[in-house]
Design a protein that fits this description.
It is a single chain. The protein is an all-beta fold. About 0% of the residues lie in helices and about 50% in strands. It has one helix at about 110-115; strands at about 5, 20, 30-40, 50, 55-60, 70-80, 90-100, 100-105, 105, 120, 130, 135-145, 150-155, 165-175, 175-190, 200-210, 210-220. The longest helix has 5 residues, at about 110-115. The chain starts with 5 loop residues before the first strand and ends with a strand.
Length: about 220
């Protein structure tokens, strides 16, 4: 059972000059720091690269191999010598921390009981995004009082047999609920449900919030 890694802030603060983007190819000042959500990958030759969005890759100047030995989502801070963030640009990795990365799970007869139905709120910010075959969710939930317990989170496919692009985020507290709140980020590989097209597919993400059921839509590019 994989559990989320909680974070106290949305991202490491590096000062007022830090530019926050998730996938932005606009011009930045020379010698700029950029924060991004990326997929850490290796090409056929084993060289590490960072997939910033569906179209943009960055080549780390100070990393030759994937330190995690597998494809995984991560939060990174990059330092660009050049004036533009563009495809195949080179950048120095200043900070790199993995995001819990999971596959979709199948619907079962009792999803709420099995996967949990404890409430969360999902932030509408640049962490919550569908890109590079992943859905990444930035959420907050009640803290768990026991230090030996945590949270179990899943994105369930197939709850609505009539809509394969409807996914349900389930959260289960593993232990007694505390009065405070924690934040977490989790990514789910959704390539198995995406069509073989280069067009965008609307995905409906449903979840149980603190005020009742909610849903929102993200657009994900197909597998082509």
């Amino acid at each position: 059972m994989k559990k989320i890694k909680t974070i106290k802030t949305a991202i490491i603060a590096l000062g007022a000059a830090l530019l926050l983007v998730s996938c932005n190819k606009d011009e930045v000042n020379r010698g700029s720091y950029v924060d991004a959500l990326v997929t850490v990958k290796e090409d056929a030759s084993g060289t590490c690269f960072l997939q910033v969005d569906d179209n943009t890759t960055v080549i780390p100047s100070n990393m030759t191999t994937n330190p995690f030995k597998k494809e995984i989502r991560a939060i990174t801070t990059l330092y660009f010598d050049d004036a533009k963030i563009e495809d195949k640009a080179s950048a120095k990795v200043v900070y790199l921390d993995t995001v819990l990365t999971k596959s979709l799970v199948p619907s079962v007869a009792n999803n709420k009981e099995y996967y949990g139905n404890d409430p969360v709120e999902i932030f509408n910010d640049w962490f919550t995004v569908a890109e590079d075959g992943y859905v990444t969710l930035h959420f907050t939930a009640n803290e768990v009082l026991s230090p030996l317990k945590s949270h179990w989170v899943n994105l369930v496919k197939g709850e609505n047999p009539e809509n394969p692009y409807e996914l349900v985020f389930h959260h289960r507290l593993e232990g007694p609920k505390g009065p405070g709140f924690v934040k977490g980020i989790v990514s789910f590989n959704i390539r198995e449900i995406l069509p073989d097209t280069d067009e965008s597919t609307p995905l409906t993400i449903k979840f149980e919030s603190f005020s009742g059921p909610k849903s929102f839509t993200l657009k994900a590019k197909g597998n082509k």
